[in-house]
């Protein structure tokens, strides 16, 4: 991947800015109870990659620090991650809308 940042520094291109982070999307893993041909992440019952609880705790800390309103959980099938219920419970406890 080519680093294009130095090209911007050398020009009069206006500074980039963004609005407040409102929605944080997280892929909890590639395990799924189905193996759909159209799946853009190639999730299936054979996939074993999943987000650890340590990473989820960091995700919650980032959401809290940046006052994120919505946590969007994706996968695979996010509910197949063994930490799914704990993540949802703790996210709701700090006021996040979980979708």
Automatic annotation (TrEMBL):
Metal-binding found in the keyword field: yes
Recorded GO MF terms: catalytic activity; iron-sulfur cluster binding; metal ion binding
Domain Radical SAM core, first and last residues per copy: 27-94
Source domain of life: Bacteria
Keywords: Iron, Iron-sulfur, Metal-binding, S-adenosyl-L-methionine
Cofactor(s) of this protein: [4Fe-4S] cluster
InterPro entries per record: Aldolase_TIM, rSAM, rSAM_ArsS-like, rSAM_sf
PANTHER family, sorted: FE-S OXIDOREDUCTASE (PTHR43728:SF1), SLR0304 PROTEIN (PTHR43728)
Protein name, per record: Radical SAM protein
Organism: Thauera phenolivorans
